[in-house]
Amino acid sequence: MILPSKPEPDSPPALRSALATAASGKAQPHAAARGPLGTNAKSSSPLPADDAHIRRNVTRVERYLAQSTARRWLTADARNQGAKYPGNLHRTCACRYLRHQPQIHVMHDTHHNAAFYAGLVSCGSVWSCPVCAARIQERRRLEIEQAIAWAESLGLVCVLVTFTFPHSIADTLADLIAKQRDGFKRLRSGKAWMKVKPLGLIRSLELTYGDNGWHPHTHELWFCEPDKIPCRVRLTELWYTACLRAGLVDPSDDAQAGNFNIYAVDVKRDMTCGDYLAK
To answer: Is-above-0.85 flag for pTM?
Structure first.
């Protein structure tokens, strides 16, 4: 199938209509069969087959809705900065929206039973594009599965280590990231680090925003020897010292120090690929 040479402009109402259609009708008969949410807000009981198919379609529409919103915001930002072509400043402005070939085709992936466009620009941004981020995460999932299989074949233990730190609404993201980078540089230097250092690790930076402003934190998958599983208490001590020197904590704030000891470091062992990606 060949589409017109110019893609149709975004139409959020049409996408919302598709979202409503996908979410209604067939999902209703199975509502009673769904299990309750687990103790983890990100977990739930498995959906019936029909509902899982509907959920995939709904998720796909939601991603394109989010991408449409991101495109509008980034285009406005580029215009405010005087950019003649917003896509030259923010690649996501052109993603799945502008063509790079004379014609646009709708292709069918028989292996995954999915349709996709060929001939459209793809930004490949994991940070600003929900559509590209999902595809990149799937590729990384396969890589992480291979890494975990490799580690287990050598008798290593997979441990998930999460590092966070105090932050407030007054902190800027750029300042927090700079101090966090300095904190990790200090953490991973010296003899103390060599005693807890894993054989290898996979690191992921996550950014969230809430009542206390920006919250940068990292999830690290450590590959450790069975007799060298990291101790949370010791890691917390090392991380606090690093954060103190990087200016991320106030040494005179006892309440902050108490919360730091509870929340700043989390250690979970025997992690799977799904556990890591769910973070």
So the answer is: no
